[in-house]
Amino acid sequence: MKNIVIAVISLLVIIGATYFFLTQSNSNQTTYNKETTTEPVLNSTTTSPTPEPEAEQTNESEEAASRGSESVIGTTVSGNEIRAYHFGSGSNEVTLIGGVHGGYSWNTALLAYEVIDWLEANPDTIPEDITLTIIPVLNPDGLESVTKIDGRFTAANTTGVSETEKIKGRFNANDVDLNRNFACDWQATGTWQNRSVSGGTAAFSEPESQAIRTYVATYKPKAIVTWFSSAGGVYASGCAGKTPSGTADLTARYASAANYTAYAEYNYYELTGDMVNWFASENIPAISVLLTNHTDTEFEKNRAGIEALLNYLSE
Fold it and tell me: Which CATH architecture has domain 63-313?
């Protein structure tokens, strides 16, 4: 009996010791886990993550660079490419557009190509904070109907073309006046001088207008200049009484440098569906530069205007 009691007491001692040992071991393990999983406290010498604004600027620069020096922003009714040429890699997009009226105003497209040549030879003209995009021909179908060339041409390619053919080249392959196809006071039938022209079946019914709408939505230009002919002057934009801040300064500076007359609006006749006025409705300062006639590019005048524009817009 005495041996049984001793055995029971010994067993109880062993169980108790084992319990005590296991309890201490778990407690130490818990303490270790807490110490190794606690995040370190940053002190004054700890390197902090890169601020988000810098990351955004890098992304903008990378996006500008990813377009390269040339891109296609859309295609026409006939399948011709609408090309854009890019200079610089700054975060502020500035856009120049020619050839809206195709073969009728072929000198605006030729001016755009001359500006491209000048910028290729003088890349330092572009400030560091700006990407300058030139869309030389918004209406390649209309231009090709006059020059018989898809792409770069010369003034000689328009020699011998009748006025009737040039007027037909004003419109796209659907016989729509692209400068009556935008969503600012749009109407199916617009006015050009003393005649009626088609504004399309709806605002942005044409692929060329859609290409510009997409481009503007994607790159959000800081300013836009569009060349037309012919009247000789620089005209501010506006839509439904809305004129974006900076438009008046843009108009005055370009006109002064290029030796054109500046105008607060184009009011020779009612404009419906006008592209440049639509830019204003999108809160983009934009101007129409009308060359003096239908043959001269007036490159030197417009080069001076572009330089004044870039200096004004650069931060």
Answer: 3-Layer(aba) Sandwich (3.40)
